[in-house]
């Protein structure tokens, strides 16, 4: 399914519920942050050795939280006319410049730490 199709599904879902009135940039950003934190909550206090087990046993909850976050991303981009594909490619180009393979390969530091 294409991104535009997903955005159309979300737009219809929200229009039928008269939710456009609640979807300003601030509240959509808060919603995205909230859902990301709900995903994080699943892994809270899980030891590194147990991460894969948690992923297996809580897969549906993890998928639900990821999709809730994606909902807010797609809704934001749909309402405020952000070309998500173009923005993604542009950001990846910036990342390629910030994280050149020959400098960062095998490292997990932020671009301003190397």
Question: Which features would summarize this protein structure in a list?
Answer:
mainly alpha, 6 helices, Helix Hairpins, 114 residues
Could you name the CATH topology? Answer: Helix Hairpins
List the helices and strands in order. Answer: HHHHHH
The CATH architecture comes to: Orthogonal Bundle
State mean pLDDT (0 to 100 scale).
Answer: 96
Helix content: over 70%
Number of helices, where a helix is a run of at least 4 consecutive DSSP H or I residues: 6
Task: Indicate the radius of gyration in whole angstroms.
Answer: 18 Å
Q: Structural class given helices, strands, pairing?
A: mainly alpha
What amount of the residues lies in strands? under 5%
Question: CA-to-CA gap between the ends?
Answer: 39 Å
Unreliable residue stretches: none
CATH evolutionary superfamily: MazG-like
What's the structural domain tally?
A: 1
Structural description of this entry:
- The protein is 70% helix and 0% strand.
- The model has no long low-confidence stretch (mean pLDDT 96).
- It has a single domain, classed as MazG-like (Helix Hairpins, Orthogonal Bundle), CATH 1.10.287.1080.
- It is mainly alpha-helical.
Task: Compile the SSE list and pairings.
Layout: H1 3-16, H2 25-43, H3 51-57, H4 59-79, H5 84-98, H6 101-104
Helix pairs in contact: 1-4, 2-4
Quick synopsis:
This protein is an all-alpha fold. Helix content is 70%, strand content 0%.
